[in-house]
Specification:
Blueprint (H helix, E strand, L loop, with lengths): L1 E5 L5 H5 L4 E5 L6 H4 L4 E4 L7 H4 L6 E4 L9 H6 L3 E4 L5 H19 L7 E5 L3 H13 L2 E5 L1 H7 L7 H5 L3 E4 L28 E4 L8 H4 L6 E4 L10 H6 L2 E2 L8 H19 L16 E2 L5 H8 L3 H6 L6 H6 L10 E2 L8
Parallel strand pairs: 1-2, 1-3, 3-4, 4-5, 6-7, 6-8, 8-9, 9-10, 10-11, 12-13
Helix pairs in contact: 5-6, 5-12
Bound molecules: 1,4-dihydronicotinamide adenine dinucleotide and the ligand O=C(O)C(=O)[C@H](O)COP(=O)(O)O.
């Protein structure tokens, strides 16, 4: 069997070589010619998985080791009997940690008490619900918006989009969708941007396109935090120059998340081909207990990982893709022993 794998997939050799010959390439370079005689395709977010890539190939299984689905034409896969698995939730804790760590840093910069702020979370799935749980632990009041969940689960505590947008801190965690009853493309647009004002902290760690950047660049906010952009890696430099954090789509890039993305696809692949899982793969990340020296929350979170370094690293946007492909090691909070309680859920 032949597997073609994005070389940014965590531990691709240790994890996937039990299935056959592994060929790797940068995700953006995987093309119809390279997949043609392969049986399995494993990607992250940079490969467009569609008819143009797969028609006439031998691919029987596609695994995506990330949460977003906008790079995959799932209808094409279904109609052509190609098995698809996506590692939903693999990086949700990493994104929640990114948002909380940034809020704590902004509280210090602007001298506000985060317990007196409201946090509007738009999209309350794997990321949004973990973020909400961490915010609750810290005593931050959340305003949750997710009309799909509200409709399906009849949740009484959810709010309308306009209410979530009027929070002090507004953060998007929806997929990028263009159709259905609740498309998220330009969810923050001409008609509702007036809720965002000079006191708002606005995050996009979901996907470029969820917020209309043409309007965003003309809107005065307290701070912008932008991890996901329209037209990556050719990002909007007006927004980049003024954002508190302008990072290269790395909110989900913890070691744990990358491992979990690969591992979840591995489990699905074992099931698909009826192969037994190798026990040792579960132990591929094991940094032991990591000790923190700091004695307050802000310093502890920055000692774990200071996200400001990611903004500095892409001041020259030519570094956008290189930096994210060679991202520093960042472990999630549960690995650390801290003198001050961390909001771990
Ligand atoms: N910056 C990064 O590194 C990362 C970005 N992402 C992005 O974040 C998105 C969310 O990730 P997860 O929470 O894991 O996905 P998820 O599928 O678990 O949750 C998404 C939630 O958004 C809701 N939703 C969909 N359309 C909506 C709308 N119009 N308004 C409000 N809510 C809506 C859904 O009902 C669902 O509950 C991913 O699709 C991906 O695009 C995910 C992980 C890492
Ligand atoms: O899971 C998602 O969705 C993401 O946005 C990933 O963190 C993106 O990872 P890359 O494949 O772009 O490294």
């Amino acid at each position: 069997m032949k597997l073609i794998i994005d070389d940014a997939c965590y531990a691709y050799d240790e994890i996937f070589s039990q299935f056959g010959k592994v060929i790797t390439m940068a995700g953006r370079d995987i093309n119809a010619k390279s997949v043609k005689d392969c049986d399995v395709l494993i990607v992250r977010s940079r490969t467009q998985v569609n008819q143009a890539l797969l028609e006439g190939s031998s691919i029987k299984f596609v695994g995506s080791t990330v949460a977003g689905l906008d790079h995959v034409d799932q209808d094409y896969l279904k109609n052509n009997d190609i098995e698809f698995f996506s590692a939903q939730g693999c990086n949700s804790m990493a994104v929640a940690e990114f948002v909380i760590s940034t809020i704590i840093n902004l509280a210090e910069k602007h001298k506000f008490n985060y317990q007196q702020k409201t946090l509007g979370i738009i999209g309350v799935g794997n990321v949004g619900s973990r973020l909400a749980a961490k915010a609750d632990l810290l005593g931050i009041k959340t305003l949750l918006n997710d009309p799909i969940r509200q409709h399906n689960e009849n949740l009484g505590n959810f709010v309308d989009l306009d209410i979530a947008l009027s929070a002090d801190i507004v953060t998007f965690h929806t997929p990028l969708t263009f159709d259905g009853q609740y498309p998220s493309y330009k969810l923050l647009n001409q008609a509702n941007f007036h809720h965002i004002n000079e006191q708002t902290i606005l995050f996009n760690a979901a996907r470029g396109g969820v917020i209309d950047e043409k309007i965003w660049e003309k809107t005065q906010t307290l701070e912008n935090v932008i991890d996901c952009w329209e037209n990556e890696p050719n990002i909007n430099q007006n927004l980049q120059k003024t954002a508190y954090l302008a990072s290269p789509h790395i909110a989900g890039h913890s070691v744990d998340a990358k491992f979990m993305g690969s591992f979840m696809v591995y489990e699905a692949l074992c099931e698909f081909f009826g192969e037994k899982q190798q026990e040792n793969i579960k132990n591929l990340i094991n940094p032991g207990v990591l000790m923190l020296k700091s004695d307050n929350l802000l310093d502890s979170l920055n000692e774990i990982y200071d996200f400001k370094q990611d903004t500095i690293a892409i001041k020259n946007i030519e570094n956008f893709e290189i930096y994210r492909r060679n991202y520093p090691i960042r472990y999630e909070w549960p690995h650390y022993r801290s003198k001050t309680p961390l909001p771990i859920v």
